[in-house]
Amino acid sequence: MKYIRLTKEQLEEMHQEFINFLATQSITAEEWESIKKNKPEVAEQELDVFSDLVWEGVLSKVEYLEHFSPQHMFLFKVGELKISMISIEVEDKGIDITTPAGYKWLQNNFMKDEVNLYSSSKLLSDDRNNDIFVLIRQGASITKGDLFSWFEKFVEVD
Q: What does the pLDDT look like over 13-33, one tens digit per residue?
């Protein structure tokens, strides 16, 4: 397995897609029930393959990611060859930008000396999707890129 198995809730949400996946392998509903009962290791393998297919589809479409911690915001733009990052750091440890009040403070004070803006970029590896997946496993969320686009006006991004 390349990524991680979808959760039970995610698999339930993708019930129809999973049925279609089984159908592409000529596995009927009755056969699937038999596999789950008599060959659980095969059922596990099918779930893993399906999960990887779903992850590949999702990751291939990712353009932006965000990761927040109490004093940092990391905004990523994923291109074909490189990933660009804007990092926002709040020096005051008493301000937590993961809270509504801290985020509001950042909105009002992002140009002050207590806030540092950085940017950098790096080339993606040969496995772009895995590079994105690593960031997601570290806590990043897929977004539409609104924050990246907004902060891009204030910091030079490669």
A: 999 999 999 999 899 999 999
pLDDT tens digits along 97-116: 999 999 999 999 989 999 99
Q: Which residue has the tokens 């979808």?
A: 6
Q: How far is CA 34 from CA 43, 101, 142, in A?
A: 10, 54, 37
Nearest to 152 by CA among 69, 86, 61: 86
Q: Residues, the chain, total? A: 158
- The dihedral of CA 117, 126, 69, 67: what is its sign? positive
Residue 7: DSSP 8-state:
P
DSSP E strands, the chain: 64-69, 72-78, 82-90, 115-123, 141-143
CA 53 – CA 5 distance, rounded (Å): 10
Q: Residue 137 has which token pair? A: 């496993």
| Token pair 């596999």 in the structure block, residue | 35
pTM confidence score? 0.87
Q: How far is CA 90 from the centre of its chain?
A: 23
Instruction: For residue 139, give Cα distances in angstroms to 26, 69, 103, 133, 136.
Output: 37, 9, 18, 10, 5
